[in-house]
Request: fold
Amino acid sequence: MKRYLTDEEIKRAKADKKIREGIIAELEAKLEIGKPRPVTVDGPDPETGYKMGAYRMTRRVATEDAIRQFCDAIGEFNPLYRNRDYLKNTRYGGLIAPPQFLGAVAPYSGIAKAAEDLDFHVARVDAGVSVEWFKIIREVDRFTVFEYPTSVKDITRENTVLQFLVNGNRVFKNQRDEVVAIVDIAGIAVVLREPSPGKVQVGKPPQFRRFSKREVEDWFKRAEKEKIRGGNPLFWEDVKVGDELPPTHHLFTQAEAIAYSAAMGKSVSWRTHMAHTRDTWKNMIDPESGLPDFTHWHLTDAAAQRLGMPRANALGMQMRAWLGRMISNWMGDDGFIQKMGDQLRGVLYRDSLALCKGRVVKKYIQDREHLVELTVTVEDHDGNFMIPNGTATVVLPSRKMGIGAGIP
Reply:
């Protein structure tokens, strides 16, 4: 059975490089570094036996219902992703999905999943991703996904926990064998001590506050005032370095976590969980009922505390989807998000407000594409940054080239 390492064992591992090298070697063997493997809907993979677990492929097809559920989960009201009548008058001609919808096809913060096969407990932390999109995601697109683990690195320091950085990427292809997107992923595997009340092993202790009704009403009014550019083109020539994107306003509560979890296809019954975790469910016992608690650390405080965190918290992919919504609002129907990248540097805890911001830092022409580079951020109600230095590259229409020129 899986166990927690003792303080003495962790102290010894931090002091002894050979012990850490042994953990790296075990992780590399389980990940099969450099070997591509298909990300399957139902693990384990029939050829390799590798079990994707929570980060398996959760849906193969971009159906209308799946796109709508994803949009509902992130508060996306853009008719470009919802309204067939509206789409008849666009260059797309049919329903498309937001770029970050791929996170609901095969969630891409799970490259460190193999760490769960170690005989001691670890927490898997999303350290950041970089995504490049090559194609629009259209309704009924059918996906295949391959994962390529590339490296495991010891990032333990004297003043840190025992932790390892796992890198890799995922390649998403559609039914035409076209590469839709390539995602470079960084995940951290944190080795855990036995949890104890009030002791935080991952993240920083949150500062809780109670919001007044007036604060909530004001935040919602700000959200209601957010503008969707839609069919009014934003031309490259009209964008200036230093322009600020209209911010978007978000709330992270348990309801938001449940909605996004369901959109990802991660909300399943206890029987399904038991089938995947038959040997580890005894580590997930609810102390009051004695029943297994299969909620994850983004949903409930109890699950978070089992993994050394003080409170449930937002998925990195959820915050990236919010940023994608902000960019789509600004660029309009005729823009294309080509790249997004980030490093997560803070935790958005349950019952927080979140604000997405963006600014134009560069514009240029390359290979006939009219490009704009952005910095994007996510911060909470106290000004703490979850994503302090995110980036994005957007292709915009040009007055000279015309709408649709150079855009996938």
